[in-house]
Amino acid sequence: MNGRESVLSAIQGALSGVPDSERPDDVPPSTGPRADHAGPDVVGLFAERAAEYRATVVRVPQADAAAAVGRALARTGARSLVVPPGFPEDLLPEGPWSRLADVPPLTVAQLDAAEAVVTTVATAVAVTGTVTLDHGPGQGRRVLTLLPDQHICVVRADQIAPDVPEALRLLDAYRPLTLISGPSATSDIELDRVEGVHGPRTLDIVVVEDA
Amino acid sequence: MSGADNVVWLGTPAFPEAARTALADTRLRANLRRATGTIRDKRLAVAAELDDWEELRDTAAAVKRRTLRHLDHHLLRLEETVTAAGGTVHWAADAAEANAIVTRLVKATGESEVVKVKSMATQEIGLNEALAEAGIRAYETDLAELIVQLAEDRPSHILVPAIHRGRSEIREIFRREMGEWGRPAPEDLTDEPRDLAEAARLHLREKFLRAKVAVSGANFAAADTGTVVVVESEGNGRMCLTLPETLITVMGIEKVLPSFADLDVFLQLLPRSSTGERMNPYTSLWTGVTEGDGPQNFHLVLLDNGRTATLADEVGRQALSCIRCSACLNVCPVYERTGGHAYGSVYPGPIGAVLTPQLVGVKNAASLPFASTLCGACYDACPVKINIPEVLVHLRAEAVEAKRRDRLLPTTEALVMKAAGAVLGSPRRLAAVQRLAALGARLVARDGRIGALPGPVARWSGTRDTPAPARESLRAWWRRTRTPTSEDARTTAEGKVRR
Questions:
Q1: Angle CA(B344)–CA(B349)–CA(B354) in degrees, nearest 5?
Q2: pLDDT in tens, B153-198
Q3: Which residues in B34-175 belong to E strands, given as ranges?
Q4: What CATH number is associated with residue B250?
Q5: N or C: which terminal CB in chain B sees fewer CB atoms within 10 Å?
């Protein structure tokens, strides 16, 4: 008997007490209307919660979005910026930085040497201060937001979902997904929180408010 | 190597003995008290933010219990969806089989090293040791796991495996061992957590950048889509899940969820229960392989290793609902004082005390169901409402039964219980014994307390003082003072009327 058959027959033996009339899909999935944890000011809550995770958050009107990206770059002094395919050109600021396009794909060494990356997001979650990437246009491959030290995210206010269930419903399970809440962090040494272990040390979030 | 050899650390003393040693270590107790206290407060604060916390727990418990009742159905569905998304599914009945599968997969790539995301399942099967025997070096990349690996130590907590180590110890371990494994620690390394984390970053980055194969565990897998989820903080998980060409995920069969939509409940409960955060910094979800992004070969190893035996026990089965958040460890008065090593298992604390004996057989971890005060704090903290005290009591009965079966003569405990049964079953006998006890106690008690006694009760009395029984039992006193006369009955009746 191979592993598959032996595991499956052991499960069936263990579950002999479950009546045949009970079907696995008798019970609907667990999603449904639940308590509202977000309140009326979803954008404000998102900005507050993301900042609590030591992300740098600014809220700007559409016209100031590119300049806000520029200020984030200036703050860390980053001189090389990875720009994923499909990132809106009108969100890119002028500045003393060199642009790295991921076409053809950048090598791991090039990405490791890059100082910053700028992306859009798929959705965001107010209650947890999370941004979610599905690595589609404007967001790039997963590795793009992993190796550079600074990650700048541009979030449109209308992309912010109140809570985790709403955000998950907006996502496509068949794409790779990354949920990011603040910069990389560890609490493994005496439970002291330290930011910047392996992922980006700095997370900047630019929330673009409706005009 | 059998399952039992890995889940429990053979050759380590049983819990009562190991606990005695741990209790004497004042630094360990201070580290633990501080760490578990910190995390307890954070967890309570973020759980209190959700006014439907109890409803979320009920939902999560229901989803888990329901999934376990149809586990074969959901696993077959998962196999189908992962395969359709370009992954390959393997099934392993025990640790040896799982290790052989992973070793074969790594060898097929021609590589002799792998990077690892922290995973309880691979620890449980002793994967690193099995790979080492096959000439493959496995690098742990979670900071705490790295500390444990460099120190040739054992993990002592499910979430924070190096919780028993202080910062200066970690500095010494890094300075002494990092050079053996790769980039050495900087000469001027201090014991500041920030500096230590930076040393780990530099040490591990070169490994991430050259790694061709990664091994991970899984927090959840959704059967309807084939999506696998890893929840982490440091980004080492993302490194392993993104950079290598081949990804091998070892997942206990109990981790499957029916649907992607079910994740919303668990992604609300897990971070808040484990680290006391609203959300952990990084959660990665992937479904098979994606062309041009991340590993192009994905293998999912579904691991039994004692889980189906646990599933067969209708009371103990609920332990398989565990999402490894470690909230039960942090609230447990026993864990806080003994630390994780005393449990002698990959799974310490309250959940370990119920999971370990079930995975390896009660006979192989007979002291663990007794490593608890049954205070119930673990049940209150558990986000999926595993009734740990109920399972502990159930397993205690099994441990006693197993002991009885293996003996020709009854144990002292069994004889005492039998005698107690006979005495408590008869008021006359009870009264006689109470008179005798009162008399005997006065002979051995000092200041109204009975200390250590010789003979069969030596072990019991050696660790506790017992108040001496009263000179007279309540029943005897009642009979002496309140035997109603006709006079008394009339007074009582009149008393009631007057009020």
A1: 85
A2: 999 999 999 999 999 999 999 999 999 999 999 999 999 999 999 9
A3: 88-92, 113-116, 137-140
A4: 3.40.50.10420
A5: C
Q: Chain A partners of B242 at a C-beta cutoff of 8 Å?
A: 142-143, 146
Separation in Å, CA of B34 to nearest CA in chain A: 8
Taking Cα atoms as reference points, which of A125, A138, A195 lies closest to residue B264? Answer: A125
Mind telling me how many Å the CA of A167 is from chain B's nearest CA?
Answer: 9
User: Are residue B104 and residue B247 in the same domain, yes or no?
Assistant: yes
Q: Cβ contacts (< 8 Å) between A191 and chain B: which residues?
A: 34-35, 38-39, 160, 163
Specify if B490 maps to a domain.
yes
CB B250 within 8 A of CB B121: yes
**CA gap B134, B165 in Å, rounded:** 31
- Out of B308, B329, B348, a domain closes at B308
Per the domain annotation, does B214 fall within a domain? yes
User: B45 with B190, same domain?
Assistant: yes
Q: Residue B264 phi/psi, 5° resolution?
A: -60, -40
A129-147 exposure pattern, b = at least 16 Cβ within 10 A, e = fewer: bbbbbbbbebbbbbbbbbb
Q: Are residues B43 and B190 in the same domain?
A: yes
Mutate to test the interface with B, among A133, A189, A202 (most CBs of B within 10 A): A189
Mean per-residue pLDDT for A180-185? Answer: 93
Of A11, A108, A168, the CB nearest to B243: A108
Report the Cα–Cα distance between both ends of chain A, in Å, rounded. Answer: 66
Cβ distance of B205 and A188 shorter than 8 Å: no
Tokens of B324: 């490894």
Facing residue for B51 by CB, picked from A22, A30, A35: A35
Residue that finishes a domain, picked among B267, B285, B308: B308
Mark whether B302 and B421 lie in a shared domain.
Answer: no
pLDDT, one tens digit per residue, over A70-96 is 999 999 999 999 999 999 999 999 999
Q: What angle do CA B227, B228, B229 make, to 5 degrees?
A: 120
Q: Is residue B247, in this structure, part of any structural domain at all?
A: yes
What is the domain count for chain B?
Answer: 2
Q: Domain check: are B276 and B131 in the same one?
A: yes
Reported ipTM exceeds the 0.90 cut: yes
Phi, psi of B136 (to 5 degrees): -115, 130
- Paired sense of beta strands A185-186 and A194-195, if any: antiparallel
Q: Is residue B256 within 8 angstroms of chain A, CB to CB?
A: no
A positions 149-178 inside 8 Å of B (CB) = 163-165, 168-169, 173-178
Residues B41 and B153 in one domain: yes
Residue B94: give the domain boundaries.
3-308
Give me B412's structure tokens.
């002292």
Asked if A18 lies within 8 A of B69 by C-beta distance, the reply is: yes
Identify the closest residue of chain A to B268 by CA–CA distance: A164
Whether B304 and B417 map to the same domain: the answer is no
Q: Is position B406 within any domain?
A: no
SS3 of residue A32 by DSSP: coil
Q: Which residues of A touch B93 (CB under 8 A)?
A: 3, 6-7, 10
- The full length of chain A comes to 211
